[in-house]
Amino acid sequence: MDVQELIDREQIRDVINRLSRGMDRLDESLLRGSYHPGAFDRHGATDGLAEDFVNQFLANNRLTALWHGINNVLIDFHGNDAAQAESYVTAYCYQRDGSEPRGNLITYVGRYRDRLERRDDEWRITERVVILDWSEQRPIVESDIADKFVSGRRDSSDPTYQSL
């Protein structure tokens, strides 16, 4: 493995992580910037152009909180400018019941199978297939401890967007 391959691997991991952050924070620029034009996404109920997935996701996402954990990213290169990655993912989707401190938590556990290409010296996804291994839904009551922490937000007011 040479230095360029190490750089490429890190850039690919960054694209995968940015797309998850884009979904968690409803960040349109991160979402759109993770796909090449004309990319395809098979994302549950959405099966078509990634641009359509992003539009639908931004228009219809009313979750109180969404959190993606990405790990076990395995990358196989096909020449210098194409790669396939498999990433394990756990996604927690929480929807609060009105203003009450309770709601429903849906947990998805699966994998992303991404095809990526480097175009104009930038790695982006050309095809994503979401593979669901299992999921669960359950009612939850929020813990009182949440009041003692800085709250996360699903937009640019989230603390991670503040510079140090």
UniProtKB/TrEMBL annotation:
Residues 4-128 form the SnoaL-like domain. Signal peptide: none annotated. InterPro entries: NTF2-like_dom_sf, SnoaL-like. It holds the Pfam family SnoaL_4. This is Nuclear transport factor 2 family protein. The lineage of its organism: Bacteria, Bacillati, Actinomycetota, Actinomycetes, Streptosporangiales.
